[in-house]
Amino acid sequence: MFTERPGHAAGRRHSILLAAALGAALFMPAGGACADELTPQQQLAHDIYKELLEIDTTTATGNTDRAAQAMAARLKAGGFADEDVHAFSPAPRKGNLVARLHGSGARKPILLVAHIDVVPANREDWSVDPFKLVEKDGYYYARGSGDDKYMAASFVTNMIRYKQEGYKPDRDIILALETDEEILDRDALGIQWLLKNHRDLIDAEFALNEGGGVGLKDGKPIRNSIQTSEKVSVSFLLEVKNSGGHSSVPRKDNAIYRLAEGLVKLSQFDFPLHLNETTRAYFAKSAQFESGQTADDMRAMAADNPDPAAVARLSASAVYNAQLRTTCVATMLQGGHAVNALPQLATAKVNCRVMPGEPMDGIKAALVRALADDQIAVTQIDQAVLSEPAKLDEQIVGAIDKLSGEFFPGAVVLPVMSAGATDGSYLRNAGIPTYGHSGLANDINDIRAHGKDERVPVKSFYQGDEYLYRLVKALSGGT
Ligand SMILES: [Zn+2]
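That is the input. Now the predicted structure with zinc ion docked in place:
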């Protein structure tokens, strides 16, 4: 077939290639794939990934409109009609895309979601150019390579593949690429804008979104996560005011000391245990990765009123503690206005990650109780996006179980609650149950999202792309 090096005459080659290659059903979980041995399908995935990664879509300074336009062009070149592809620009440099593959309509659509903005990357901190796709040591390096352009590129590529093979699903398959996820859609130009202005275009029975990857330990897949819920991020400002004065005549009542005393009390405060369907299943299934007392304690979380000693032991691990309860932590501190003046104001910022379903005003009240000082004013400083967990739907979990067994033999399919936030919370609030599930395999100790030298294993990229292709088919009546 085609031996040309990647990147020549992409559009023409792909449609012919795909029509030919797809007929031959060449695809299986990619082994030691690297750029030189790519199948036509993998070549398209590579090129779309490269195109997306090399558009700087840093939320504050980059251009997601260019990325949305580029993916619209790819979909149209791949055979989608103009009326089924919409690239929106709600503001300068900001872009969202929606595309639809029509099905029989026997069931409500499935929505595939991926954000196209990325967090900043300082060139001088990286060993490679963060806005160039670099293959090195079996990895693809670039800002957004994992978060979240792997999923965006895979979804676009697979939509073209479905189109090219004439796939007729029993439900429409909708793709939404949104901007501004990395700022929690603060200005409502991304997922909220789509929900508000084009709900009809993205309405669906459920959605697949980022989150929930495949954990590798010593190269072996051990868990394949389904993110069904996420904790709610909300922040508070703590303030202590004081009349101040000259620092040469200090008094006991000092704004900085007072705040510090309150923070020490907060550091010793724990919210009550709060388990839910997802976290109980998480602990029950994760016990096998632990041994001895920890494994026993994890199994103990299945009880209605787990043994307090087991809870206390598990809470000693920051990762497990974050799955057991709401947490609040001081993240920023300021005080004083001059070195020779007694401070008139001391402030701190506290970021809380609230268990889904816990009332917001209860959080503030708990903080006030923990600080136990009415001189410390507590003010909520951002809007919390509450979202109910998505149900562990058998149709979805069943399909994942089956496919995961084929692609990631030995990995436990694990429902998880993410301590971080995604656009899934807005979708869930809008009544679209959303599952974070990427199929992207990464070493559990090499998570580089938001960090420097972000990378994904080359093999995992093509394996994940194929996994998502198959999963969406399995969830839309295809074989
Ligand atoms: Zn992300």
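The radius of gyration is 24 Å.
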